[in-house]
Amino acid sequence: MKNSIDFQTGLLENYLEKTVRKASDMRGFFQDEKALEEMISQGDPTIYEVYAVPNNGEGEISYAVTVIHPGKVGKEFFMTKGHYHEIRNRGELYIGIRGKGLILMQKWAEMKIENIERGNIVYVPPCWAHRSVNVGSEDLVFLAIYPGDAGHDYGSIAEKGFAKIVVEEDGGYKIIDNPKYHE
Ligand code: M6P
Ligand code: ZN
To answer: Closest ligand 1 atom, CA of 157?
Structure first.
């Protein structure tokens, strides 16, 4: 299928699947549960959206544009759930389109963090869990390209989270240990 992306806005023309993650879909992922419940009761805003063109199967390649809105739950910036690939041995490529963000990557006890900004290309090697965080005041938009058989495994992230969390401090951000994380 022919398709195109607007590299100014990140708008993907012919996406096939749209996933909307509202605050109520993110229970268990943010630290401040009270702040999240308050947000849900006050209109349940959308945290992020994913516009995907999946091409499922071995050897196939899928892609998706993610839009993470600006905001915080308590002190923690809006972010994706984050996932491992169901088939662990599958990598992924991220290309920043607009906004200011971070990608947290984790494999066992190892952690690495890179910037997602317009034009940045971030390689997520096989076996690394990945989560993106909007640390700016506008939408964070990026394109992700991944193997068609990778799949999403949210289970262990839902249970343990990432070793680090990203919180607001003095108008900027800081990366701190996740108090709830355990090996
Ligand atoms: C990127 C890709 C997608 C993923 C999306 C949102 O676009 O990695 O595969 O679905 O980000 O992240 P998550 O699935 O963790 O909510
Ligand atoms: Zn992925």
So the answer is: 15
